[in-house]
Amino acid sequence: MAKYFDVHPENPQRRTISTVADSIRSGALVAYPTDSCFALGCQLGSRDGIDRIRSIRNLDDRHHFTLVCQNFAQLGQFVQIDNDVFRAIKAATPGSYTFILPATREVPRQLLHPKKKTVGVRIPDHVVAQALVAELGEPLLSSTLLLPDEEEPMTQGWEIKERLDHVVDAVVDSGDCGTEPTTVIDFSGGEVEIVRRGAGDASRFE
């Protein structure tokens, strides 16, 4: 059964966040809130966590996983960014955007798109997600909590606990979450491509 953590949305309890981070370091798969919608998260190098996310969401090996980062300095360790892209991303973060970029050697191979060698990165504008990533001290490997054959993500922590009780290890709930996934911007091909329009304003990249 999944553990359920009720976290204050503006002043998340340090002890609770520390407990969740410790569980992630020990291999736990958690459902947690972001500034777009709930996400599934596990430790960066967890092959088991990746396999479990793929199973829950029915994903193939072309799916772009996302590294949820605390800040721009952390993000820059895992992706290659030129000056123009740096300025564009810097102006849009933190926020509800995922950016697809060429990965550095810091990124575990199993996370990379098999042909492009790219990975998704983002910096959420969400107090609880930020607290969790800060406590971890490294990015949280994540994927939108959108179940197969469903058009919208679940928005309630109790519902996630009820439905995914035996496939996730913990649910972090800080109140209602949005239903729109992030806007996805691909910078990896030279030209800017809007892959998915979501919670972030895509017009700034058009």
TrEMBL record:
<dbReference type="GO" id="GO:0003725">
    <property type="term" value="F:double-stranded RNA binding"/>
</dbReference>
<dbReference type="InterPro" id="IPR052532">
    <property type="entry name" value="SUA5_domain"/>
</dbReference>
<protein>
    <submittedName>
        <fullName>Threonylcarbamoyl-AMP synthase</fullName>
    </submittedName>
</protein>
<dbReference type="Pfam" id="PF01300">
    <property type="entry name" value="Sua5_yciO_yrdC"/>
</dbReference>
<feature type="domain" description="YrdC-like">
    <location>
        <begin position="14"/>
        <end position="200"/>
    </location>
</feature>
<dbReference type="InterPro" id="IPR006070">
    <property type="entry name" value="Sua5-like_dom"/>
</dbReference>
<dbReference type="InterPro" id="IPR017945">
    <property type="entry name" value="DHBP_synth_RibB-like_a/b_dom"/>
</dbReference>
